[in-house]
Amino acid sequence: MSTDATVIRAERYAEIGTIIRRDATALIGRWAKRAAEEQPTAKRVHHAVLLDELPAFLEELGDGLAAAGDANPSPHCRLANQHAEQRWETGWSLAEVVRDYRILRLVVLEYLDETLDRPLRLTEIQAIGLALDEAIEVSVGRYVWNREEQLRKLENGARLHADALREADRRKNEFLATLAHELRNPLAPLRNSLEVIRLADDSPDTVRQLREVMGRQVEQMTRLVEDLLDVARIAEGKLVLRTETLDLRSALEDAVQMNAPLVESRRHRLSVDLPPEPLYVIGDPTRLIQVFVNLLNNAAKFTGAGGEIRITAIRDGGEAVVKMVDNGIGIARETLPHVFDLYTQINVATDRSQGGLGIGLTLVRRLVDLHGGNITATSPGVGQGSEFTVRFPLVATPTLQEANPEPAGEVTDLGRHILIVEDNRDGRESLAMLLELVGHKVEVAEDGQRGVELALAVRPEVLLIDIGLPVINGYEVASQVRTALGSDVLLVALTGHSQPEDRKRASEAGFDAHMAKPIELSELQALLARWHPGR
After folding, report:
1. pLDDT at 142
2. 324: part of which helix (H) or strand (E)?
3. 414-433: burial string, b at 16+ Cβ within 10 Å, e else
4. Residue 162 Rama label (left phi>0; alpha psi -120 to 50; beta)
5. What distance in Å separates the CA atoms of residue 455 and residue 470, rounded to the nearest whole number?
6. 67 Cβ contact partners less than 8 Å away, ≥ 6 residues apart
7. What is the pTM of this model?
8. Which residue in 142, 163, 11, 166 sits closest to 74, CA to CA?
9. What would the pLDDT profile of 83-107 be if each residue is shown by its tens digit?
């Protein structure tokens, strides 16, 4: 008896081939039941798609056994390739694929043994085994190819991810270097101004000039820090919009007014074309002004002296469309798709003196997105100007009360008795001097414990309490003072953290208000004017 595969394949096995072809459905039923019994936790063996090619596979297997073959594998191997593909896509392991064939082999042999009126011949068993071994070889080969292809894709993906991480790291390092540069810029004139004050006589003209210089530089540093905080708040989903119905034209007019000094200093020709009818949108007025301030500031910085900037606003169906066009340095083709990405610098080498952290346009896009709008940027190329288009959904004309809200209460010059609890000496003393200059009586404490003791001793009307205090923190100070003095004292939290959860925790500790450092005197004065003891 020959064991040569070519000899076994060349013989005809008409009887068993016919039975396998004829009873394919019965064989499939037995195979499915047996597979489920042997792998009860592997639900994928019940997946309908795994049965799709089996009828054709068994028919081809039966035909191949019934007809005289040749040295080449039988046609059923073509379907074995599909068998492997289906099982790969369904999540089978390689061991499960091989086991699947072994179960099929046992089912076929048992069925033939039951159906034939004679014992199976050894050559018939060899022929069935050889045919299924050929199918296993094809299926395993396809399965391994799929796995290697997946590994290649994973390796390519890992390489691309590594490249993206390297690029992100490069941009982060560039951002940190730029941040250091931008923070040093205002520090230099501040230090120079202090040195001039030390050396010069108290000349009113000199003091006035230095005051203006220091004011501009502090505003610049404040703007840098606020932009950084805003980007972080948006990224963490913690930026809260205080929305109302407003006319978008007013936000544009305010932004133009705020940027007027920069535009005038660079002698730009600025034209603003707004429609006669209102453009009502739902939005946070402060944040919408911030969007247009950043865009106009960007246009002014990157447009040469004497350049042209055009702002237009129109109604386009159900949208308000604002376009800001300049004839400045433009945007390179390769930079344009990334212009709104964090830390992206536009033509830094061209105009390094204008600086910037590369976060302004990122902040603009995210604020626009939060308002349900969208923003696009176009540019013909370097040296050919830029155009930014912002779209916001319009809303119906508001009622008279919405359009004309009640005016806020007037700020009075009523002096208050204030206790400042702050561990930073310069911050504590400078704030005390400022409040005394506007007519308040001020006490100071350098830590939380001293703050509580002084509050109970002098019983001030107002406490301005830093949160990060030594000995006991600001929350504990507020809790103790509130318990002792009740509602006859106004407690205001001073902190560099102004997230919603910070405000919530401050309120729970007994604070009446929460102000981010550095505080605006006008905001504090307005708060003091509105507050009355016992409320």
Report:
1. 87
2. strand 319-326
3. eebebbbbbbeeeebeebbe
4. alpha
5. 17
6. 12, 17
7. 0.53
8. 11
9. 777 777 777 788 878 888 888 899 9
